[in-house]
Amino acid sequence: MKTLLINKFDRIMQKKAIIALALIIMPLMIVFAIFFSGHSAAKELIGYLGTDIDDLPICEQFTVAPITEMPKLSQMAEGIYAAVVSKDGSGNYIVTSLKSDTDIKAIETLFATGQLPGDYKGDDAKRKERGIGTNILGFITMMIIIQGVALTTMYPEDRSSGAFRRIMSSAANIGSYLSAQLIFTFISLYVPTYLAIVLAKFCLDAELGYSLGMLAVLLLIITLFATAFAIFISTVLERNINLVTSGISIITCILSGCFLSISSDNKVLTATSNALPQKAYMDIVHGIEFGGHFSDYRGQLIYLLVLSLIFIIISVSLVKTRTAKGIY
Amino acid sequence: MNFFKIVKQDFINILHNPALIISNTMIPLILIGVLGFVTKSNFGTMPISAYDYQGVNMLILSVALLVAITTSNAFMEEKVMRGNMRIAYAPVSKLEMVLSKIVSSYVFVSICYGLLVPFCQYILGLNLGGSNFLWFTLLLNIFAFFGCCFGAMFCCIFRSEEQANSIMQIPLFIFIFLGGVLFRIHRLGNVVNMISNISPVKWVAGCSYQIIYDNDRHLLLPVITGLAALSLLCFLVCGLLFKPEEYV
After folding, report:
1. The model scores a pTM over 0.90
2. How many domains does chain B have?
3. Which domain holds residue B28?
4. For chain A, which ranges sit under pLDDT 70?
5. Which residue from A5, A31, A211, B103 has the least number of CB within 10 angstroms?
6. Distance between CA B239 and CA B95 in Å, rounded?
7. pLDDT tens digits for A264-302?
């Protein structure tokens, strides 16, 4: 197994593209993500169509500015204006916006009374409420799952080149081959990602939402899962592995709230989302950022670990039957 | 004549790959559904609902992300590589070989998205420009051609499917991020806005919004010209770097 592991590292050195991906681009994207999560975007802009008010309302969530002509619908779609307010003949404010009725009512109140309703939270406030750390780890979750499969590329390659069959007929067995691959994927996922986070912390002085020690543990959980998933998907699929993983991971990550929190009344969707492992992970991450403890999330932790284990067991047994049948 | 035979064969190869067919038809629809649902609370119903907005954005995102991968699969998938070797020995010029991969995947994605846009507009009832949807389809189509050339270029640079695919996703993700189709980036400040102009996704998204929401087509011609120029550039790089003898 040691030989196999060393062999993996030796061979990856030959693949400059993958090295560049794992050691340079992936950390860069993470630093990028951390930078933008902490970077405060400009407040949303409300345009006031008209010149009759001098003291436009001021509030924490929006900037109000006078404009002279109605912006085009495409500019609103691009997000240049969150809303446009004008006055009708009888002095009522009319709000034109792509936002929901709740937001429109809140903006009406802002103009009528000079302040937003007390319990109102715009999109930005909701994002902030989710926590910086949760946003960062949500993005990292997706990156790690996709990257994990990219780093496992040597395993399907061995199978198609016939090297796998030769290894199987040597003293090495399935267990040692797959363990070597698991360890390799795990190390090359975990180390650069964690280093990138540490780097971002010290160079950009970024706010992470967790202590570095806690991040190391949280990252460990998702990396374990991503490694097991990568082995599983590379075993089950024969071709188009990259394409299928990108599709699966983007969709499941959106559904499990890695980017935006999802709250819905739709039972089917809620059930699907709750069954996703990333959702369990996001629950842990969010809870811990706001002062929770691992013991509060035993269920989710066990779910993730059991699922990872099942992925590995299925992979091993699949490889066993296939080798026995002589498919490889 | 030879050229059409290769194109036909490449096209049939793509049709034999269920992952490619599913990802160019089902994935955009799933993305529209999922993201529309997730962002539903951020949008009202009129004049643009969450589904309308995500419909435009996710179609652009799918073309940006999936078309290039489709081409690189059509180009270098393991099963196709052996065939490529045989073509390399035949009296066919190497540019024809690259061009046939581009043309065959372009025909394939043109059919896929040519059907998807009217399907979304009329059967799912999304607002993709009403009677203007043909212009939007045309824009997506040209963008898809650029995607094909872009994918082929990465295949020629990296000479292996999985490397091309994994590296290619990085510039594609950057283009998509700067294009603002995943989330609006307008408020990230002037610097980001200025940088975002290098992203073809941004051009296509801006032009699509104008076509669909303002009924205004004056950006269409410059964007198409820009995309055509970039496609040509990618194709030239292919011509310079593609060496079939290196696959042996």
Report:
1. no
2. 1
3. 2-247
4. 38-41, 54
5. A211
6. 6
7. 777 888 888 889 999 999 999 999 988 888 888 999 999
